[in-house]
Amino acid sequence: MTVTAGATRVVGTEGATATAVAPRRFPVGFHWGAASSAYQIEGAWNEDGRGPSIWDTFARTPGRVRNGDTGDVAIDHYHRYREDVRIMADLGLTAYRFSTAWPRIQPTGSGPVNGAGLDFYERLVDELLSAGITPFLTLYHWDLPQALEDEGGWTNRETALRFGDYAAHVARRLGDRVEFWTTLNEPWCSAYLGYSSGKHAPGRVDQAAALAAVHHLNLAHGLGAQAVRSVVGDAAQLSVTLNLCAVRAASQSPEDLDALRRIDGVANRLFLDPMLRGSYPADVLADTAHLTDWSFIREGDPATINARLDALGINYYTPLTVAAPDGSGHVEAVTDHPGCGDLSFPDVDLPRTIMDWPIDATGLHELLMRVHRDYDGIPMVITENGMANDDYIGPTGEVHDPERIQYVSDHLDAAARAIADGVDLRGYFQWSLHDNFEWAYGYGKRFGIVYVDYPTQKRTLKASAHWYRDQIAQERGLA
């Protein structure tokens, strides 16, 4: 294994723990964590009063998820959370990012609270605190109650209002123990993969509906932030997590640069601007006017969306390169980027993960610097970063994943460079702690630093977990 860390190259045997890495400069109190989400790990899909989510429905629809996999059992975290917290503690994590499942707390998305659902999260939070691990709670990671989708889902303004109620319920139960709150995880995915390309639940293909979903997700963020603050007060550290694109133009031609502007608009600024500036970008509204008139934006909505935030969560995996239309007049009817079906995304000469995502840590530095520059130096947390790999247990019972170690090391270097360049970066969370249900890919893609044998649920630390433990200890001055 060869690992570059800071300015020092460390060479060891394949799969061995890297022990002599060059220190990077991270601030005192920096959060070292790993992340997960409810549907991907909990299982217990119909226990203790939990209602169905759009992912229960989507996963049961033939052809939607590879191999017909579902999250019914996942990695059984609902029953094994104490074991999982012990693993976190053994790794030296100082923080853990998880999501609460809306249908576990309100089975239909509104009405009475299911006390047993909140009891589970109370037990989890208490277990984390007992282990000295700071909980980072995300209120929504894609598992919308099916009953709300039946009424229009995120295309319906009422869903945003119900989200505010749900956020208040969670805050009332856990606000005395949870300091860090995230409203939404990756609304880009919820809106575009869920309603435009149909790759994710609920599986709709309607670009206009996707743009309505963008606004109602943005509004839900604002209402959720208001609800948490109304219960917890200024003790709540509020954020939202966006999977922002580090967009690059294929060339410096005016046409390619305009393609970059368009993608940056729907992928980044359509979320960033209302959340952090209180207004929608006029060029994006104009670009998409042939799809919708945006009449669902009501007076006062932008101000609600522009709730005061203490930090912005950044999920980063890969950059995106875009080019102008090829001149053929062809427009993709099904697209992840509404209004951009005429654009092309050329291949780039970079190594790739098994997700076929290009690997380039410099994109993380570019993204952090851009947000820092354009949005008044807002504090940030890297809430997800990691890679899928072809992991397996070797003959000696070990899981060697040197590619993941190199990936994480390079991205930590990029994060440290951003800090040196003035970014107020406050934490790093690997995606993910465990192998888990990877949405439409089912169980075929392993992102975890902890290997899970799904038939037995046995957990095995990968080489990357050992490396991350050593890294955390060194950065905290404990090694």
Automatic annotation (TrEMBL):
Positions annotated to bind substrate: 40, 141, 185, 317, 431, 438-439
Database matches in SUPFAM superfamilies: (Trans)glycosidases
Catalytic reaction list: Hydrolysis of terminal, non-reducing beta-D-glucosyl residues with release of beta-D-glucose
Source domain of life: Bacteria
Keyword annotations: Carbohydrate metabolism, Cellulose degradation, Glycosidase, Hydrolase, Polysaccharide degradation
Pfam families registered for this protein in UniProt: Glyco_hydro_1 (PF00232)
Residues at the catalytic site: 186, 384
Group of enzyme by EC: hydrolase
Its EC number(s): 3.2.1.21
Keyword Hydrolase attributed: yes
GO biological process, one term: cellulose catabolic process
Gene Ontology cellular-component terms listed: cytosol
An annotated Gene Ontology molecular function: beta-glucosidase activity
NCBIfam families: BGL
Family: Belongs to the glycosyl hydrolase 1 family.
Protein name, entry field: Beta-glucosidase
Origin species: Actinocrinis puniceicyclus
Lineage: Bacteria, Bacillati, Actinomycetota, Actinomycetes, Catenulisporales
